[in-house]
Amino acid sequence: MGGRAWGVLVVLCGAIFLEGIDVAMLNVALPSIRAELGLSTATLSGVVSAYVLGYGGFMLLGGRAADMYGRRRMFLAWLVVFLVFSGLGGFATEGWMLLLARFVTGVAAAFMTPAGLSIITTSFEEGPKRNKALLFYAGTGAGGFSLGLVIGGLLTRIDWRWVFFTPVILSAVILLAALWLIKEPAGEERVPRRLDFPGALTVTVAMLLIAYAVVRLEHPGQGWGWTLASFAGGVAALAAFVAVERRSPAPLVRLGILKSGPLVRANVSALLFAGSFFGFQFLVTLYLQELRGWSTLETSLALLAVGIDAILAPTLTPRLVARFGNTRLIFGGLVLAAVAYALFLPLGLDWTYAAMFPSMIILGLGFALAYGPLTIVATDGIAEDEQGLAGGLLYTAFQFGAALGLSAVTAVNVAALGDGSREAALGGFRAALVVPLVMAVLAAIVIASGRQRVSAKEARLASEEAIPAS
After folding, report:
1. 295 backbone dihedrals φ, ψ, rounded to 5°
2. What distance in Å separates the CA atoms of residue 148 and residue 25, rounded to the nearest whole number?
3. 260: nearest Cα among 127, 382, 384, 122
4. Count of domains observed in the chain
5. Which residues lie in coiled coils (predicted)?
6. Are residues 287 and 174 in the same domain?
């Protein structure tokens, strides 16, 4: 790759690193934010949920907007929005200001992220170059989340507001570099298209309602009425969206893209994998801080071993992809993740970090093997004018998977708490740890089913070729 190509890749990797570090730092800073602003538990949970709603609700629309109105334009415009509202979060003095800032930041990420991914998939030709670029991209995003846990702990010790101001500084640097380096593809003629407003409205309403329902699963004590109503409304809006798209002469989402078996399997596996990872990380954080009394910084450093994927993804994974292919690598990564979760099941009240370390390092290796190749499979073979849509589908799967995993482990943990003793709390953690294990196993089964179909197809083609020869 030439110098400009590397420059573009570094800028886009910086953007996905920014997203990862932004989420991770905020998660670490929540207790300090609550202490200073006096937020209720519901408002504090809403600070996280607001981002999920904005991100998940607008991701499909954001991905399609990049295809229709220009990837560079969408990337730059929403990076500015991300910068501004992250800064506003740092100046918040009331809970509603944080809620607004996080919601709009999530919306900005929903438009910016698929635009950045589609710039990579359209700037690098399909094959080894694109694969290498995507693996660098995926590794940087994962590294941002891992390092964000540590950096967030350090910044929170100074002032939690730096958790919001630091992304502003990074956004400004990325924006200046992007203005200089990123160009729309030369000679590309973008045909103006009328926005499919009914499609955009129904899919956004559907995603917002479903995201809200998933978030409410974390709080079973609030009752099931609104949760079920939100799910029902989301499903109804989704059905309306499908009906609109079938009749639209210029649909927002071409439904035929969902006929791609590899794309569907990659997205389902991504949803389950993200759910297992974020659910596990959430449980480990609670176990170390609430049950063992570890500090925020000690917990962040304990989880840092998972960040080995940031080193392995751009160095080791491309070689393994070239030798074994994406599907085998994804399957291997998911199996390793399941092993990591299984090793953590017998955790005790007096576990040393040496007993936890195998799970952390194996999970980091599994993440390095699976995350990048999932991104490759989800975008391979997709037409250039639908790359933004493919990216939107993938990141929607990741976001909903993360929300679903967090909700599921929270619900199981709360249900299994028992009498409130330390032993009962430990039992609750053990019960909830089964959820990430089951999700990782299901993801591996989904990927394995695709491998079996490919093998069967190859065998059929081989037999058909052998008939004329005989």
Report:
1. -75, 170
2. 5
3. 382
4. 3
5. none
6. no
